[in-house]
Amino acid sequence: MDIKILGSAAGGGFPQWNCACRNCVGVRNGTIRAEPRTQLQLALRLPTSGWLLVNASPDLRAQILSSPALSPKELPRESPIAAIVLTSADVDSVAGLLHLREFQPLQIYATPSVRRILAEENRIFRVLNRSNPPAVWQDIKLDNWLALPDVDSSAKEAELCCRAISLGGSYPDYVSESLRKSLPPEEAVIGLTFLQGGKKMFFAPSIPSQSDLWKTAAHSSDLCFMDGTFWTDDELIHVGGSSKTAREIGHIPLGGPGGLFEKFGPAGGGRRVLIHINNTNPILDEDSLEHAEALRRGWQIARDGMEFHL
Ligand SMILES: [Zn+2]
β-pairing, 271-275 with 223-227? Predict the structure, then answer.
């Protein structure tokens, strides 16, 4: 399995355009040791050719342009990007779909609830239907293995599969009350296990603190990409960016009692990588105690351009 991290930051990126927190000021001025990061985006190589995007970041256009493997090879328009799988309807997960509207046939995998939010309630995403053939929406059923498409139709068996589990999160605030009431809560935020050649990768950029549904999948994976949004629960309150805690907006903090590091524990022998890192998170400062602690606990801190092979 070949995986590229095209972007590693949470919504807003690093630095965030309107943020004057210590990290954002420090990376702008070069007064802390830290790398800028674009908003979270993963790409997986499909077994014979082509690429699968995991979510569609608001920074997707620039991320594609900086990745030669994702460049079109044939006239007139033939992107190697064949499919997208969505883990939620959050703006940061879906806004990049609008960058893919240039008449490119695509397969889009999502839970039926996320599809309804995008295809029914947000008419702007209908621009994806202008391609010939139009974008095809494929339903993700929770807890079932799903074969991912391969542009080489001669392949007899799907070599890359994925399985979704509910992570217990909630739908974004922008979803209307009436639609929200009709949607099953378990389809709001999913984690994905990808399986290829007997190796498993688990992806969970948004882990609510009230549920441990991610543990089995994370511990049994060879490589897991986990929610590294915040270090402390009150991080956004401290910088004046919000009146809500990390837990209230669907992210378990890394540190402290009941944090991700404590909950994950020493179990599992696979590699662990923190992704979706918010610009306020002290782990972004490579000289911080928190950065050192994450590494000491056996975690890698994602940066743009990282590649993994399983
Ligand atoms: Zn900031």
Answer: parallel
pLDDT over 70 at 155, yes or no = no
pTM of the model: 0.94
How far from the centroid of its chain's Cα atoms is residue 201's Cα?
A: 13
Q: How far is the CA of 270 from the centre of ligand 1 (A)?
A: 31
pLDDT reading at 153 higher than 60: no
What is the residue-averaged pLDDT of the chain?
92
Where is 5: in which H helix or E strand? strand 2-7
Q: Of 48-52, 84-88, 280-284, which gets the smallest average pLDDT?
A: 48-52
Residue showing tokens 């095209």: 6
User: Within a 10 A sphere around the Cβ of 243, how many other Cβ atoms?
Assistant: 8
Cα(236) to centroid of ligand 1, in Å?
9
Answer for the pair 50, 80: CB distance below 8 angstroms, yes or no. Answer: yes
Kindly write down the DSSP assignment for every residue of 201-233, as one continuous string: EEEES---TT--TTHHHHHT-SEEEEE-S-SST
CA of 21 to the centre of ligand 1 (A): 4
Measure 112 CA to ligand 1 centroid, in angstroms: 34
Task: HSE, CB side, 13 Å, CA atoms: give it for residue 14.
Answer: 30
- Is the confidence at residue 276, as pLDDT, over 90? yes
Ligand 1: centre distance to CA 24 (Å): 4
Strand partners, 175: none
pLDDT tens track for 102-133? 777 889 999 999 999 998 888 898 888 888 88
pLDDT at 31 over 80: yes
φ, ψ of residue 201 in degrees (nearest 5): -120, 135
Of 173, 174, 208, the C-alpha closest to 189 is 208
8 A C-beta contact, residue 40 and residue 55: yes
H/E stretch holding 139 reads strand 136-139
In the reported structure, the alpha carbon of residue 23 is separated from the centroid of ligand 1 by a whole-number distance in angstroms of: 6
